[in-house]
Amino acid sequence: MIYLELWRVLWRWRREFTAHEFMSTFSPPAPYKMLHDMVKHGLLRKDGRGKYNVASPDEVAENKSGIEESYEVLKEANLKYALTDEDAVFLWTKGGYNVGRFFGRYPIHIDIRKEDVKSWMRFFERKGLKYAFKDKPTKETWFGVFYCLHPNLRVKSVEVDGFSVLPLEDTVKFCRENIYTYNPALEMLTSMSK
Q1: Structure pTM?
Q2: What is d(CA 109, CA 94) in angstroms, rounded to the nearest whole number?
Q3: What does the pLDDT look like over 115-163, one tens digit per residue?
Q4: If we measure between CA atoms, which residue out of 31, 66, 71 comes closest to residue 52?
């Protein structure tokens, strides 16, 4: 069960509970890790030793609005980039297809030029934003919004709704390479490319 689904269940179950009540009712395999992760995701608040409050839908929605701002900040970098992978699909489908993430763990995938890696790192560090590199192991589990950087020799991009995005034909190719996840999006994108 993903954390957002569990949050919905908890919201209907009880607004306040103890760790013991949670364990005896749900019997999860790693209860303390789940509770810890849900606090980090903004779905729960810890109130004292072993006591939790479920975040309200308004609080959860407030966390979600930070995602939009996280896309907008890319425009301030003045560096070449292209939203890629699931973000390219997300932009090309006008938000109609978004998989593999939610506001509690929301990577934003961007292609960047290898020559700009240090500039991007300085930009994100100056802004206090988290970033990681694609296919490089990290020492921690990432929560919230973070940027997944894809360094390349060259960055192909077009403008979609004010953002630099991987061209449509490359986005369609990505969907075909990941057909089991992106088949519904592929149908949407294929009709757009005709």
Answers
A1: 0.70
A2: 16
A3: 999 999 999 999 988 899 988 776 666 667 889 999 999 999 999 999 9
A4: 31
Contact 44, 6 (CB under 8 A): no
Locate all alpha helices (DSSP H) within the chain, ordered by sequence: 3-13, 19-26, 31-40, 57-72, 86-92, 117-127, 168-177, 179-193
Q: Give the residue from 168, 156, 171, 157 showing the smallest Cα distance to 193.
A: 168
Residue 11 and residue 54 in contact, taking contact as beta carbons nearer than 8 Å: yes
Under 8 Å between Cβ of 40 and 46: no
Structural domain boundaries in the chain: 3-55, 64-193
d(CA 59, CA 33): 22
CA 22 to chain centre: 27
Q: In 3-state terms, the chain is what percent helix, strand and coil (to 5)?
A: 50, 20, 30
The pLDDT assigned to 92 comes to: 94
At 29, the amino acid letter reads: P
Residues with Cβ within 8 Å of 170's Cβ and at least 6 positions away in sequence, in order, are 88, 156
- Spatial strand order in the sheet of 51-54: 16-18, 51-54, 44-46
Question: How many angstroms separate the CA atoms of 52 and 6, rounded?
Answer: 14
Separation in Å, CA 140 to CA 100, 131, 136: 19, 12, 12
- Only one residue has tokens 């849900």, namely 38
The domain at 64-193 falls in which architecture? 2-Layer Sandwich (3.30)
